[in-house]
# Entry
Amino acid sequence: MTAPSGRITIHVRGPVRVHDYQAPPDGLLVHSVIVEGPTRLVLFDAQFLLAPAAELADYIASLGKPLERIIISHGHPDHWSGLEVIAQRFPGVPIAALPAVRDEIAANGQAIMTARRAIFGPRVAAGPVVPTLSLAPGALEIDGVRYLLEAHEEAESRHQLVATLPDQGMLLAFDLVFPADVHAFTVAGHFDHWIAVLDDLATRPFETLLVGHGGPARRADIAATIAYLRTARDIHASSTTPDDYAARLKAAFPHLSESGWVDFASLMLYGVINP
# Structure
């Protein structure tokens, strides 16, 4: 296997290894998480661009264990467009999501990918691969690894999964938390409830935090995301155009990287890009 263009961080917790793949910058620094149990693998999220998805598939194959399940965290296509590649490489593997996320992809996935192809071209999927398995909140065990699954509404997205690996001390917050050195995707306007969800996550006992975009995260990034959202909420309340919102938010956080994320998010927040 050639050296990856993305970055892979491996967390070893006894017999369990958690592989955190991060796409390169042109792939929005999207994370996909592979939980490697004693005999099987579970994949969370499938990338946006097809090239990182192919690299992710190669890495999964290199682990030499069967992929038991694919889990999609939420309905934004930067976390499931790459299923076009993953599903072809690992045919027959169940793809699971919260029922509301599955329904969202089924109803809007084609329109979303048609719109994204107009921007990103053939680097993204032509259409959606719709999850086939409903994921219920609560306890789940696969290959001896315990997961505690939660469903959250109206935060970074309309419907969002959070997964805890209690025996490994890991919290998978996906797009609810952003590292303190990058901008967040504020695409939906659910600022107050998103902050409330983060206030709750900040009280949880965990050692390792894994997120959906950006570099390695830590507990302090929850507070940083809350502070960012409070500022974004106030700017949104007094802005009438996406350009004004984006310019003021970038001016409020001049030290943060990935300012292009703000430009794209503002177009979604104000309905210019819909879906």
The mean pLDDT is 97. Residues 7-269 form a domain with the Metallo-beta-lactamase; Chain A fold (CATH 3.60.15.10).
